[in-house]
Design brief:
Helix content is 60%, strand content 9%. The chain has 227 residues and is mainly alpha-helical. About 5% of the residues have low confidence. It has 7 helices and 2 strands, in the order αααββαααα.
């Protein structure tokens, strides 16, 4: 392996310069794609308002409802467990406030800003207490905004960036890929013919010759003339 790596010819300055220029051109295209796809597009704003309204509703239910939590205290040297009724938790107020702020960020139509706002709201929504009858809905306070952000940033934004890059890909890159594919297609049959021509007595083809392997020469039977 080391011998094979050392035997490779070093790249020329022109080749390095060409690769660096191609790399910088790709980075510029990626930056332009991000700038072109940063704005929200329908139906993203409307669905963001729906998600914000759902989070506000959960916060109102948590604020107006009562929740019974377990608490412990020491009494005469022993730990006693008792129930505590929680009214108007602070987490509900924070959830309502963050949900309204996330809805307000839709005005600027910036996907990343709105996505960060909804993820912060989802992190607070997990710890918001709810009545025991709907205690399972606590996970919805995280899953609903997280699913909205995933749909907006991953499926919508990434798809638009890929289509934008495909439309503005340089024609030279496509021509280079086509020529390389054509070269490989031409080299394939010739390589197949070489391996087919060199085979063992049992009919098994020998591997292609390279720097490490040289196929054995065929033995000439007595009485045959060499050409």
């Amino acid at each position: 392996m080391r011998w094979a790596r050392r035997s490779r010819s070093p790249e020329s300055d022109e080749e390095r310069q060409r690769r660096s220029q191609e790399r910088s051109a790709r980075m510029e295209l990626v930056k332009e794609a991000r700038a072109a796809t940063k704005e929200m597009k329908p139906p993203e704003p409307v669905r963001g308002l729906y998600v914000s309204a759902f989070l506000v509703l959960l916060g109102v239910v948590s604020y107006l409802g009562t929740d019974v939590q377990r608490a412990e205290k020491k009494l005469h040297g022993k730990v006693v467990t008792y129930d505590v009724v929680v009214h108007h938790p602070q987490e509900a107020i924070i959830l309502i406030f963050l949900a309204l702020v996330a809805a307000g960020t839709i005005y600027w139509r910036r996907r990343l800003v709105t996505g960060i706002a909804f993820m912060l709201t989802a992190a607070i929504g997990v710890g918001t207490p709810l009545p025991k009858s709907i205690s399972d809905a606590t996970w919805l306070a995280f899953l609903v905004p997280a699913a909205y952000v995933l749909w907006m940033l991953v499926f919508r934004m990434n798809k638009e960036q890929k289509s934008w890059l495909d439309d503005r890909r340089p024609a030279s890159a496509g021509a280079g890929n086509a020529s390389s594919r054509a070269g490989r297609a031409k080299a394939g049959p010739s390589r197949g013919r070489d391996t087919k021509a060199q085979a063992t007595s049992s009919g098994r083809p020998l591997p292609a010759p390279n720097r490490r392997y040289t196929p054995p020469r065929q033995k000439v039977k007595a009485g045959q003339r060499k050409t």
